[in-house]
Amino acid sequence: MTVATAGHRTPAGPEPAGVDNRLVVGGATLTWRTLPLPVLPDPSAVLAHSAVHALTAARQHAVYGTELLLSTASRVDAAMRVELLDAGFTVSVLDDDGAHPSVPPRRRAAEPGRLWLLTSGSTGRPKRVGHTLDTLTTVRADQPDRTWLCPYAPGTYAWWQVVTLSLTQPGQHLVVVEPDELDDWPTVAATHGVDAASGTPTFWRRTLYRDAAALARVPLRQITLGGEPVDQAILDQLRDIFPAARISWIYASSEVGASIVVHDGRAGFPVDWLDRETPGRPTLSVVDDELVVTSPFHGAGLAGPVRTGDRVQVRDDRVLITGRLDSDEINVGGSKVSAGVVRGVLAEHPAVAWARVTGRRAPVLGRMVVAEVVLAPTTHLDTAEAALVRWCADRLPEYAVPRRIRVLTEIPVKESLKSDV
Predict the structure, then answer these.
(1) Adjacency order of strands within the sheet including 306-315
(2) Closest listed residue to residue 21, CA positions, set 35, 11, 8, 31
(3) Which of 55, 185, 322, 397 has its CA 20 to 30 A from that of 153?
């Protein structure tokens, strides 16, 4: 890669502790130290052409403290580009030939050290949330040496979580996969000795569906899930393949940072974590079935309790996150149904590799429950819909049983590695 370097700019501070960690990206093996430093205006919104260009932008920020918003071009439409220019960012496409800038109509002073993240936009247009490398770095204790897989889209909160771990901790190496490598990532991971991987539940389900045998050949010792509701079925499937690995799930967002980390192999978190105040740790609460987080890792301007928009359900000794408030609840003739609960029941069926549950308009009832599923490759269900309806009827109230179940042939996934379940 040929990138114009930053010349004689003064570094913002000492080199990060992980500067000599190994990076495997685009078929090349590098280190953070050997990445070229692009010339970036300050402040900059960088639309990275590939994973290696995103890493160079992150390295440039770590060295020089340039105010930075990092994303892929596909996540920033024309209206968002105009919005960023109006906010004083120089918007640059970063590729092998360097940065190709669009200059803002009005320049402004940069905010040193500021990092901006774009939210997923699941509840409307993406919003900018301010962070720093410090607020994005939530793993601070010494870690055993690991080689991490990073499958996330550059600039997302999950991407920064893996990247800051590698930047700030010695011995935390990184293998980054491009979108066109996702279908074959277990082969890439096994080749480069990946023993730790982070992904959404959809990412893991899709891998299991496509080639569970290839996944089993990756020597994983740490498996992390996040970004979507995590149910017991996916945890158990991963445990069956990797009985000795530590399997963790994380609740995190651009707004409140990494707020929940669970290592016990069970979906949900312990109910006694609610309203527990511990210095330096998030406080978790439930208000009107919504998860509320007060976090030391929050984005700029979000101090105090933050309503997350995620619905929770207390079941016995666990608090389960079932989905978004605006999409999880289905009103069936006056009875409230959690789409997440129905999805969890479907996912527990051994023939189901993935499920999505939604509401559809219906006469008399107003809404009815419907579902889409992908069946496991070895499944032979001639009457899959009828069998799954019976499965749900044995485990759910009558009004919560899906009235239609459509079988898909592939697990849908977006650039975020989510499938909007």
Answers:
(1) 269-270, 318-324, 306-315, 290-294, 283-287
(2) 31
(3) 322
